[in-house]
Specification:
single chain, about 170 residues, alpha/beta, five-stranded parallel β-sheet, about 40% helix, about 15% strand, globular, binds 5-O-phosphono-beta-D-ribofuranose
Length: about 170
């Protein structure tokens, strides 16, 4: 067990179901990660300390998961120079639109990337791509992962049986 490369911080334990939908891809890629719970509004000092110390602990990218006003990714981004990927959690009165916009609409000078609502797998893959910049072997694994995903799409065309499906040649360069 090496030291974690990726930190996943969530605003509440209620975000765990979203987190657990994505972290298996980090395990599949063999990436060490850690998970944390800290609220930008209820434990702000914990968030700032976690973010400020993340780089010195060897983390390469942070994924911040939050719903409602979703201040967490922005507060994390304000306390580190590591890349921060925000995951807006679907739910609440506005079904997550508030969280999505809160993450995406950061003020200039404090960048936080955002993926789509509950898109934890993409956040994990983006963090993996960031870590792979310094780790070619991980880039290879990401290539293999993409090839596997492409194979699933191609294999799914068999479901078009009985329908006027496009010929396989249609998917190849003329
Ligand atoms: C956010 O408020 C959390 O990330 C969570 O998505 C939402 C609700 O938090 P709880 O009331 O479930 O603790 O800060």
């Amino acid at each position: 067990m090496g030291s974690p490369n990726i930190g996943v911080i969530m605003g509440s334990a209620s975000d765990l179901p979203v987190v657990e939908k994505g972290t298996p891809v980090l395990e599949e890629l063999g990436i060490e990660f850690e998970v944390a719970i800290a609220s930008a509004h209820r434990t702000p000092e914990d968030v700032e300390n976690y973010a400020a110390g993340a780089a010195s602990r060897g983390l390469k990218a942070l994924i911040a998961v939050a719903g409602l006003s979703a201040a967490l990714p922005g507060v994390v981004a304000a306390s580190t120079t590591l890349p921060v990927i925000g995951v807006p959690v679907k739910g609440g009165a506005l079904d997550g639109l508030d969280a999505l916009l809160s993450i995406a609409q950061m003020p200039p000078g404090v960048p936080a990337a955002s993926v789509g609502l509950n898109a934890m797998k993409n956040a994990c893959l983006m963090a993996a791509r960031i870590a792979a910049v310094a780790e070619p072997a991980l880039g290879e694994k990401l290539g293999q992962y993409a090839a596997k995903e492409a194979g699933k799409v191609r294999a799914s065309r068999e479901k078009l049986a009985g329908l006027p499906a496009a010929p396989e040649s249609a998917y190849r360069k003329a």
